[in-house]
């Protein structure tokens, strides 16, 4: 069998996986959901034709979106997660005994159900007693929150379709309001490499900077995302991600991670010159 899944990474670049089986396809109220069994990357979840997670490289994304804020502020107890229907972000958060409450707001219940069935490695901890699942629009949910969370993680789709609102000024302003005085906001920040993704990244950076006194960008190498070079945003009312890094405290927790470590934490904020320039232009 010669079956391939192909995604457009730019109008002129495509990325393909060899597929052994198309395990699931459906169109929910919000998006087209597919699950493939691939030869190299294991199971793959795509939404509207874009890769969200693969079994082989999801650890990189989830390590970086969770452990960077938790190593900066190990006292975090109350977390809001927006999107993240595959469950990988919640899985990493539940490894911290200190965390008392995780509210996860995912617009599409069907994504969660599909991941619980086909991607148990990422979705398994969604049943942890500390996790409250809300199936609603994250944009609307944060409007009603004030001074309520230590950490907000925005683990969203790209800035079009249902995820569009999660890249707006209104949303980031409401995240600021929903956080307490020590609060941290971490978001998936798109890629700097291809022009369209880079514009999304610049828009997000500009909007977040307008609200938070500390607003930094860090990077990771994620093979299945466009260009493989992916960014995350770290914004805070109080904590600087390098100056306040609690490396000893985090290392004493003894969490085994395949990508994250506290040296890489500091290094991930050292950006290539072209990315620094894109950020300066956005500012
Ligand atoms: N790691 C992924 C990436 O960067 O491609 C994101 C994974 S996660 C599956 C993204 C989730 O965000 C999807 O399940 C989608 O349904 C959800 N989502 C999109 N827009 C949303 C919104 N407005 N409110 C809440 N969840 C939303």
From TrEMBL:
| Family to which this protein belongs | Belongs to the spermidine/spermine synthase family.
**A GO CC term?**
cytosol
Query: What EC identifiers does the entry list?
Result: 2.5.1.16
- Write out the residues that bind spermidine: 62, 86, 155-158
Keyword Nuclease set for record: no
Which GO BP terms apply? spermidine biosynthetic process
Annotated keywords? Polyamine biosynthesis, Spermidine biosynthesis, Transferase
Q: What is catalyzed by this enzyme? A: S-adenosyl 3-(methylsulfanyl)propylamine + putrescine = S-methyl-5'-thioadenosine + spermidine + H(+)
Function of the protein: Catalyzes the irreversible transfer of a propylamine group from the amino donor S-adenosylmethioninamine (decarboxy-AdoMet) to putrescine (1,4-diaminobutane) to yield spermidine.
Q: Which gene encodes it?
A: speE
Sites binding S-methyl-5'-thioadenosine sit at: 31, 106, 137-138, 162
Name of the protein in question: Polyamine aminopropyltransferase
The GO terms this record gives for MF are:
spermidine synthase activity
Assembly and partners are described as: Homodimer or homotetramer.
**Do you know which InterPro entries this protein is assigned to?**
PABS, SAM-dependent_MTases_sf, Spermi_synthase, Spermidine_synt_N, Spermidine_synt_N_sf
Q: Which SUPFAM superfamilies does the UniProt entry name for this protein?
A: S-adenosyl-L-methionine-dependent methyltransferases
Q: Does the keyword Endoplasmic reticulum apply?
A: no
> Where does the record place the PABS domain?
2-237
């Amino acid at each position: 069998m010669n079956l391939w899944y192909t995604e457009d990474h730019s109008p002129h670049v495509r990325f393909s996986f060899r597929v052994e089986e198309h395990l699931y396809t459906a169109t929910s109220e919000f998006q087209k959901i597919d699950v493939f069994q691939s030869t190299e990357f294991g199971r793959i979840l795509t939404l509207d034709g874009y890769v969200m997670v693969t079994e082989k490289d999801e650890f990189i994304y989830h390590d970086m979106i969770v452990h960077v804020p938790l190593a900066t502020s190990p006292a975090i107890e109350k977390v809001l997660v927006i999107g993240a229907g595959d469950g990988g972000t919640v899985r990493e958060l539940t490894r911290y005994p200190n965390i008392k409450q995780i509210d996860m707001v995912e617009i599409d219940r069907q994504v969660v159900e599909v991941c619980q069935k086909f991607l148990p490695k990422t979705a398994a901890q969604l049943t942890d007693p500390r996790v409250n699942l809300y199936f609603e629009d994250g944009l609307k949910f944060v409007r009603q929150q004030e001074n309520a969370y230590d950490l907000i993680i925005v683990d969203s789709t790209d800035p079009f379709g249902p995820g569009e609102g999660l890249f707006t000024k209104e949303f980031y302003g409401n995240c600021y309001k929903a956080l307490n005085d020590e609060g941290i906001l971490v978001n998936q920040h798109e890629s700097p490499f291809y022009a369209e993704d880079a514009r999304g990244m610049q828009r997000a950076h500009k909007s977040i900077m307008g609200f938070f006194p500390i607003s930094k960008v860090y990077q990771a190498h994620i093979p299945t995302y466009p260009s493989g070079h992916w960014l995350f945003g770290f914004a805070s009312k109080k904590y600087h991600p390098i100056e306040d890094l609690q490396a000893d405290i985090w290392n004493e927790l003894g969490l085994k991670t395949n990508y994250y470590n506290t040296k890489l934490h500091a290094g991930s904020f050292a950006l290539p010159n072209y990315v620094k320039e894109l950020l300066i232009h956005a500012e």
